[in-house]
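Quick one, tokens below:
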């Protein structure tokens, strides 16, 4: 495990297994992924950034679990799902989706499908 990632989770060590499960799935299912750890987020990229992990509070405090990570990904359309906590369109036909993950089993085929789609969408940008 990278020291920068451990430092990122220093104040939220209980959320590290959630991230580890996500990173393992992304690395095993998407080729040529680079990971960049920043102060407020961890970025997954191919040609461009396509998925992010943060502690962004995408839900009201009373609705947030104690232990979570926020997974953010971009698509060319708004994905409709009760699992998605927020979706915004910062640019025409570029939708940013946020979802909270609080259990390792939420890192499932559906989420990975969306992240793979985000990777393909990102790779096609100019």
């Amino acid at each position: 495990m990278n020291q920068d990632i451990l430092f990122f989770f220093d104040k939220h060590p209980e959320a590290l297994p959630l991230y580890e499960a996500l990173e393992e799935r992304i690395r095993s299912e998407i080729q040529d992924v680079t990971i960049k750890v920043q102060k407020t987020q961890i970025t997954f990229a191919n040609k461009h950034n396509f998925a992010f992990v943060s502690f962004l509070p995408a839900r009201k405090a009373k609705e947030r679990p104690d232990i979570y990570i926020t997974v953010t990904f971009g698509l060319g359309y708004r994905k409709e799902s009760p699992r998605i906590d927020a979706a915004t369109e910062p640019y025409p036909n570029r939708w940013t989706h946020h979802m909270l993950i609080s259990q390792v089993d939420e890192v499932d085929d559906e989420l990975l499908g969306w992240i793979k789609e985000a990777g393909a969408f990102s790779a096609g940008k100019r």
